[in-house]
Specification:
The complex is a heterodimer of chains A (139) and B (173).
Chain A (H helix, E strand, L loop, with lengths): L1 H33 L3 H4 L6 H12 L4 H13 L4 H13 L5 H8 L1 H31 L1
Helix pairs in contact in A: 3-5, 3-7, 4-5, 5-7, 6-7
Chain B lengths: L1 H8 L5 H19 L1 H35 L2 H8 L4 H14 L4 H13 L4 H10 L7 H8 L1 H27 L2
Helix pairs in contact in B: 2-3, 3-6, 5-7, 7-9, 8-9
Classes of the chains: A mainly alpha (139), B mainly alpha (173).
């Protein structure tokens, strides 16, 4: 029983290693090129910035704290909280770089559907969060 | 003997290996334009891989445990079609409590899916990973307590919507 479980797990684990390593290499490459790019992409439009935020968050990867720090810096540079919220949400919920790995384990259809829905939700949640925040601040 | 050698040389590369080789080619192409950025990326990558080696070992052990404990019957009971509302609650709570990067969690979830975990609950679990209790103080520091509470509430609420949508759309295939 244990031997079977180890063998089964090892087969799955071994198959995932080249993809995991490849994805980590892509993420490192993206991070190296995107580092100074975030502050330059927002245009100051309340309509377009959340979309840009969600797109930027989707192609980025890292632990959520990194997105909070980047978001905090962007806030200081005058980017709207709405755009930053979309950015943070997409950072955590949409993983373009992770798509091959997610598709491999959970199925292509699942991975594309989930990430597509999450992208739309990141903008909706950003709008709802800021709207609710404004209402509460007005009370 | 010759036959065996011939067969071995014709052995096809797996999809994963092809992907890995494609990434190496991408690195080479980027290096032609900006060697310094690629060097930086390699250093980041090595630091990242060094950090995750122990995590990968834990993942491997966790996969063995899943294969031992989460039999088809048990997975069906907790996360399958018959799990009902309890299944949704388990998915939300475990999504919030279990931490780890996605590349670590996908193999585990893949095993659970094979054993019968519903697509909708997989989506709910993955969505609730974004409510990370240890990171809450950092978010509060940058964006305030009210913002953090509101956003966390919406994440949990939308995770259910996300699960329903993913489940329905996959069934429509």
């Amino acid at each position: 029983m244990i031997k079977q479980a180890i063998e089964k797990s090892w087969q799955v684990f071994r198959a995932s290693l080249p993809i995991t390593v490849g994805i980590l290499m892509i993420i490192s490459l993206l991070n190296a090129f995107l580092k100074d790019w975030y502050a330059k992409i927002f245009v100051g439009s309340p309509l377009i910035d959340p979309l840009i935020g969600a797109l930027a968050g989707s192609v980025s990867f890292g632990i959520p704290i990194t997105s909070y720090i980047v978001g905090g810096e962007l806030l200081l540079q005058g980017v709207s909280l709405l755009a930053i919220t979309a950015f943070i949400m997409a950072w955590a919920t949409v993983g373009v770089a992770m798509l091959p790995l997610e598709a491999m384990y959970l199925g292509k259809r699942f991975a594309f559907l989930r990430n597509g829905i999450n992208f739309i939700f990141s903008i909706i949640i950003a709008i709802l969060t800021i709207y609710t925040l404004n209402i509460l601040n007005g009370i | 003997m010759n036959f065996i050698v011939k067969n071995k040389s014709k052995k096809k590369l797996s999809g994963g290996m092809k992907f890995f080789l494609a990434v190496l080619v991408i690195y080479f192409i980027f290096a032609l334009f900006d060697v310094e950025a690629v060097k930086m990326a390699m250093i980041n990558f090595l630091q990242m891989i060094w950090k995750i080696i122990p995590i990968l070992l834990i993942v491997f052990l966790a996969m063995i445990l899943i294969n031992l404990y989460f039999t088809k019957e048990r997975t069906e009971k907790y996360f399958g079609n018959q799990s009902g509302i309890k299944g949704w609650i388990y998915a939300i709570v475990s999504g919030i409590l279990i931490s780890g990067p996605p590349y670590v969690l996908y193999p585990l979830l893949g095993e659970l899916k094979k054993h019968g975990m519903k697509n909708s609950l997989l989506a709910v679990f993955l969505y609730n990973r974004n409510v990370k209790i240890p990171f809450v103080p950092v978010m509060v520091y940058y964006f305030g307590l009210t913002f953090t509470v509101i956003m966390s509430f919406y994440i949990i609420f939308f995770s259910i919507l996300n699960g329903v949508l993913v489940g329905v759309l996959i069934r429509k295939k």
